[in-house]
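In response to a reviewer's request, we include the raw inputs and outputs for one of the modeled complexes. The two entities were modeled together in a single run.
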Amino acid sequence: MILSGHLLSVVIFFPAFGALALLCLRGDDELWIRRLALVVSIVEFLFSLLLIRAVPIGVAGYPLEEFSHWIKSPEINYHLGVDGISLFLVILTTFLTPICVLASWHGVHHRLKEFHVMLLLLEVGVVGVFLSLDLFVFFLFWEVMLIPMAFLIGIWGHDRRIYAAVKFVLYTMSGSILMLVGIIWLYNATGSFDLPTIQKMLHDGQLVLSERTEMILFLAFFVAFAIKVPLFPLHTWLPDAHVEAPTAGSIILAGVLLKMGTYGMIRFCLPLFPDASHRAARYVAALAIIGIIYGALVAMVQPNLKKLVAYSSVSHLGFVVLGIFAFQNISMQGAVYQMLAHGISTGGLFLLVGMLYDRRHTFEITEYGGLSTPMPRLAAFFCFVALSSLGLPMLNGFVGEYLILLGTYQIHWTWAAWAATGVILSACYLLWSYQRVFFGEITHEKNRQLTDVSSREQWMLVTLAVVILWMGIGSPYFTRRFATPCEAVLQQMNRNFMREAATPNVPPLVVPGNTSNNSAERLASR
Amino acid sequence: MSLNEQMLRDILRVLPELLWCGFGVLLMLAQPFVKARKALTFIAMVGAALGTLSTFFGIFGSGFGGLIQFDTFSIFLHWLVGLVTFLVILASESYLERENLDAAEFYALILFATAGMGVLASAQELLTAFIGLEMSSISSYVLAGYRRDSAKASESAMKYFLLGSFATAFFLYGIALVYGASGSTNLAQLAEADAHSSLLRLGLTLILVGLGFKVAAAPFQIWTPDVYEGAPTPVTALFSAGPKAATFALLLRIFSTIHAATEFWFWAFWILAALTMFVGNLGAMVQSNVKRMLAYSSIAHAGYTLVAFAAVTAVRSDPESVSGAYAAVLFYLASYALVSVGSFTVVSELGGRGERYLTFEDYAGLATRQPFAAAVLSLFLLSLLGLPITAGFFGKLYIFTAAVKSKLLWLAILMAINSIIGAYYYLRLIVMMYMQEYKGTAPADTAAGLSPTAAMVVTVAAIITLYLGLAPNHVLNVVLSNNLILSAR
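The model returned the following structure tokens for the whole complex.
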């Protein structure tokens, strides 16, 4: 196939060409702008599906890579690669973008062309982040993606949009600029920005970091990622950004942007700084658990429906971080799975909340009540997505949370016990808010005349529901593909860790081998 | 080699300066006869371009018995200064038309100032550098007050003149002390002088003070916001790009020649850099006038450049990282100069007659009124902010790299903090343009959009900004091939 040599570049830059094509359209030609954006994003989705074939099951490393020289000094290479972990995150991104276009079909009219251009450019940045193997190129996409997101919040958001947009940018930038210093430090020590090269140097012992330097570098990267995740106590930008963003912005923000942080931890923090990761693990886990419980408790008392979903993200992403920093294959797989599941479920919740907003122009829970009478189908979909978010077995949220708890339990049962309360709490806040919004008497006259889902909305929701169900039942399809890369990350870590920490008082780490691998699949397919 | 041949070579080495001065004189002579402003602009632009291109005829080596040095370094700066002048002249036409100002003198003064900057860029001897500094400064004083009927412009010129004279006095006194300590004002001979002599150190400190004033390094920056605000905006564009680049070049040449890698110079530049960054950024944060904000931001950028100087003088740095730091300075100067010319040109066009519309509120909703102006100004602001795929990003990256290589981790972190402060006020303007509604009375004379000449200038600046941000290789090769290290050792 003619594309195969540059498939990764195509997947990254196709939306950019789509954005260019959009610019050629007339600004008031609303229908064709929407159609073109939809076609571009769907074609992009199909392109990304081609990647599945390129990633064989059970192979560590990057089956599909692209490499060319870009800048001579400092030596920066355009190095892309995909493996089982990034594969599905890319597909998640390309899957959610057409949903975003459809979600704003009637909601957005103001400067429509720019809106879709920004959406597509955002897609370029996010996919680029997931596919970069050169630290520098990674940083570049990481920064570039900020601007379209800030514009999406700042121009098409709600009342306090400017505050939220500026807060979002400043928060993220303060993290990433420290990461830049870290990246340059690494370059200075190794003479390369290339992630596999640096990993090899670490592995061969060509690059030896002192304990203190490694910790500082780890923190430089980790803080940037933790802000993005967001990990408690760095989460305060998130409720503002989510609540003020337009529906499409919230979907992308919750669906994929947050995952860039956890992806960065798996891809960069753990393999590059294994020793520091181990030393920091207990503190990170503590913050993650605080985030799980705190996020859930705050979500419970939110009078604002969108803020409730936003805080639920803090809680769910806490699980992901916990799963990563338990250093177990099962929990790591669970973390990746939870990233995907959260993207679909929370994306779906934001979509549904956006539909309610389109009809009533408010997010206040007290303004609703008894909605299942005028809009039974929307109520049913909401119920389904909420159940998937709270982790009902057979639906996607369950698999991730279960694997994370299982993996974590094997080494620190207290962590798992504390985290498990989050599952209970998430049932509380989701079901309680569902009850207040959809059941009971209709208290506001306006709510009687609300129209149920249109066919456009129904198609989006059905698609999401199918994916949710499929991910709940057919999880091995996914886990098989990222089990080996997860294992590879852990092996890299442990090999480095064991070599460095040869002191007797450190217990040797149990390397989960094929047994746990299989049990993960067995569990996941239950 | 016959005497005539020697003479010819020397003249070819200063051909750019001769051409710039020559065209300046020509403009003054042509003024009584040529009334059309367009024709005068054309002559001035031809002069600027010819002067720049004439560097092709120069022959490497030192001329006039070691007074000037013609090398890659000086060619690069001649090109930079020439390009800035060319763009500023093109951008001034509509400004002069709008403000109804005389064109010939204006262009002549700009060309004289440019010639001065050229001398600064290739000076190999301190008194020659002084002449270049004075040529560019005196023209600048007049240019700053060119709007004679504006009180602000007169204040600006007066302030610039008084404080600038002080600074040149410092510079001259420094030269005298250096001469006393080493018996020479030639940089090549200065290299052999004892670097630890306290008289030499005192002299160089005074020189640093004088030049620090010209590049607006804190604590010698007090004049900058007022002068930048009062001067005609195209002149502000010139100030922030040309003289700054040329003065930094001289500073670089002086400190690459003497044995500067000592604790004393290291800490001098360290403190200067940290102070300048913070003063510039914190000052810019509280501004409500866009021109003043850009003025403070230019102070901040001088601070970033000084970080690379600290890397040059760091005691522990190796030759490779020193040459990297030189390259970082040159690349940064180039990227900043173009972005600065571009953004001040937009500000100049949007200011309206008498430069009335300069506050942040006047920029509200610009994206709907003038999409092109808002888009390019955003690009320039993002480059100042140092976001990827713009020139500013690589400029900052190279300075970061130089600082980290010289083990200046703390200075790099301070620079990172400052970049975030910078993000706040640059974003504030972008937010104004894209996310706020315009509330004031629509300025009738600015609604038309950029004039064609100004649009050309900002397009060129925007293209170069993106080009340096996507493919910095070519320019980087040039700046890396600077021969400062060779001439120093």
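As requested, we also summarize the result in words. Chain B has a mean pLDDT of 87. Chain B touches chain A through 29 residues (CB under 8 Å).
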